[in-house]
């Protein structure tokens, strides 16, 4: 039997339904893309995007106290750790090959105010955590978040006046926060607030204080997104009024992301971030085409929660969906991925 005959036999359904079947099947098929998909070894050889444990940044929640961890209800498998337990978690992550963590604090309500004063307390939770982690796991890259929301009594990323978020006054506080974090030993500061001009102001202040090697991971294209819900549960940081649409970006805009990126590059950003990731893969792609800087994608809390919830119902295969999702971010152009799945992925890739 000739190959053409074999393929005719294989395609009996099509044959039965199509009148011109004989003619088209007998036309020689020059390109057979399936040839490169025949075996796993071959697929591996021609694979375009690869997810590596080296690409991952593990976001972690820290809280005051000792000997405790609390699971975040809307993020099963994610915990807020007291500092002592956080150190063990960081060690474990580092041993799994994860090279970087991003820290987020749960601040007691009694320490919150409109100006986010606690954000630049040199003895605050984040500076203490940074110092302790640097001592316990010196080689892990430590990224601290710069924004007021965990410290704000209003649950906003900036200072509120008459229901509006003040830009320049907020930037002045963010600069103090970044300096305290650098002083404590942060390797990168990551402004996630979306105030105008904050990257430039932080860069200038870091340089003036001699922190020339402290980098800036800029949340450049950060959208006003409902996907942050579980994160705000984790930190008890949801806005007390309104939303974040006067500072975070409109989900409908792509060109504006390029504008934000250009500004952040001009102001001295070292790494650019897109957030959320999954609903914004086109933005990751465009930014990657546009810049030579490393691009990070934030696989945010809501993306995590959706996968966890469906998997708990037995509706999807969690491991496969996680790998597929994060690989799509790499394919879109992300060099780095912040993900709450970091440890799971490290184990899966081993
Ligand atoms: C706050 C901040 C948020 C996240 C990271 N930093 C929430 C927000 O902007 O309201 C969200 C992360 C996530 O959802 O996983 N500056």
Uncertain runs: 1-16
**What would you report as the Rg, rounded to the nearest angstrom?**
24 Å
Which small-molecule ligands are present, each listed once? ligand PBG
Number of helices: 14
CATH architecture assignment: Alpha-Beta Barrel
Strand content: 15-25%
Distance between the termini: 45 Å
Output the helix-strand order.
HHHHEEEHEHEEEHEHEHHEHEHHEH
Provide the CATH top-level class: Alpha Beta
Describe the protein's architecture and organization.
- By secondary structure, the protein is α/β, with parallel strands linked by helices.
- The chain has one domain: Aldolase class I (TIM Barrel), CATH 3.20.20.
- Helices cover 41% and strands 17% of the residues.
- The protein is built from 14 helices and twelve strands.
- The protein has an eight-stranded parallel β-barrel, surrounded by eight helices. It has a two-stranded antiparallel ribbon with strand order 6-7.
- Strand 6 and strand 7 form a beta hairpin.
- Helix 5 crosses helix 6, helix 6 runs parallel beside helix 7 and helix 7 packs across helix 8.
- The radius of gyration is 24 Å and the shape is globular.
- The N terminus is likely disordered.
- Bound molecules: ligand PBG.
